[in-house]
Design goal:
34% strand, Folate-binding fold
């Protein structure tokens, strides 16, 4: 079981949270002008790394807030937790 440090509520069990997938995905500028290929990439193409991964999580059964996590996908160790509006911090450890 993963333990996640909610920025608002503190350390909680993974069962209280919902993973929202990869974080820091940028919507294409001028959406009416982009090709179907660019939209498909934006909507469906996600990284699936072995090692460090930046993810969005929601404290679904708590404060309901969204936040970002840097997690090692091999060990499931959480190396950083930060607010949605913050840039991803530099982390050491994990497999990147």
């Amino acid at each position: 079981m993963i333990r996640i440090e909610c920025p608002w509520c503190g350390l909680r069990s993974e069962s209280e949270f919902t993973c929202g997938g990869q974080s820091h995905i940028v919507r294409p500028e001028n959406p009416a002008e982009v090709s179907d290929e660019i939209w498909a990439e934006y909507l469906y193409q996600r990284e699936n790394p072995r090692g460090l991964h930046r993810e969005r999580w929601r404290h679904t059964y708590g404060c309901r807030q969204w936040f970002n996590v840097i997690r090692d996908t091999v060990t499931h160790e959480i190396l950083a937790v930060y607010h949605m509006t913050d840039s991803a911090p530099e982390v050491s450890g994990g497999r990147e």
